[in-house]
Amino acid sequence: MRDVVEIGLGKSARRGYHLDDVAIVPSRRTRDVDDVSTTWQLDAYQFKIPCVAHPSDATMSPATAVLLGQLGGLGTLNVEGLWCRYEDPTKLLETLAGLDSLDSVGATRRLQEVYAEPIKPELIAERIRSIRDSGVTVAVRVSPQHTLALAPVILDAGVDILVIQGTIVSAEHVSTQEEPLNLKEFIADLDLPVIVGGCTDYKTALHLMRTGAAGVIVGVGADAWSTTDTVLGIRVPMATAIADAAAARRDYLDETGGRYVHLIADGDIVTSGDIAKALGCGADAVMLGAPLARCAEAPAGGAWWHPAASHPKLPRGAFGGAEEPLGSMEQVLYGPSDDADGTMNLFGGLRRAMAKCGYRDLKEFQKVSLVIDRNG
Q1: Distance between CA atoms of 267 and 286, rounded to whole angstroms?
Q2: Rounded CA gap, 89 and 95, in Å?
Q3: DSSP string spanning 169-232?
Q4: pTM, two decimal places
Q5: Is beta strand 161-165 parallel, antiparallel or unpaired with respect to 139-142?
Q6: Residue 360 is part of which domain span?
Q7: Is the peptide bond before 336 cis (omega within 30 degrees of 0)?
Q8: In the chain, how many domains are there?
Q9: pLDDT of 1-21, one tens digit each?
Q10: pLDDT (0 to 100) of residue 170
Q11: What CATH number does the domain containing 214 carry?
Q12: Residues 124, 62: contact at Cβ < 8 Å?
């Protein structure tokens, strides 16, 4: 039964739940942690952990994309980011790392200035080539607005996985000003897996699955630095959004006779417990942004910003000032941890949660029981 609340005589709304509102309930069985597998496979590509990097220049350079790939995750380079606008943005990133997060207007203006530099197709090809030469799976992100223009360069350079990501992406974009991207036609012409998103509800998730996407991003990357709610009024209760998308995946599986589309949760995920709850709600993997900014190798030295934070007309995301690194990327992902708050050894924490609940792999863990424990 749907939990519907009457706002007033003329409007009702569904009640939604954030990850912080739910908790995992262990079953009658526990399992040895060494018998638990966190491997995840998208199309032909297998990963040691269900981790996709949020495509922010604060965390993803060609070098860190390679590093995450070597550690078992999927690095995602933003082809509309600084690495594809400047020959060497290292000094710029150091300057950005030194910005004062308390001066939000000044920080946003500086981001807009550095991202005003045009995207250079030759740099896109060069960055993709450098990642591919390392031997890891190559994934890049492009916005829906620039997909048609940049796709030939991206595809010629030899990517393995294409991520088409915006704050909100729909299967049907209506425009009287320009020819919109037809996702279904575009994906049908490709012979590589495509991940699309974000989306926030059952209907949109189902329509995105019908485009032929291999993966759908659920959420808008909301975290402490996101301002999508204050700018657009859109706030996504992630537990509900993931569960709704999982229902769409189940119905699409029946509709197609067995085609499975992976769900990648993007937003409200900071700790290993958040990862466990996102997967327990039905996600196949998580997209990590700010947690990776605290890695010692992060190119912005601990600062954090969303790709939409530099939008020239309507920025959506505050600038997070540089923080001391928690440790290397390997420590953040796999430990050991010297802090009990769940921000290190993220996937060791996931393994432990799975073991405590008796599940041996991620598909089984999606069946874990949940309880509402904080929502009023």
Answers
A1: 9
A2: 10
A3: --S----SSS----HHHHHHT-SS-EEEEEE-SHHHHHHHHTTT-SEEEEEEEESTT--HHHHH
A4: 0.94
A5: parallel
A6: 4-372
A7: yes
A8: 1
A9: 578 989 999 999 989 999 999
A10: 67
A11: 3.20.20.70
A12: no
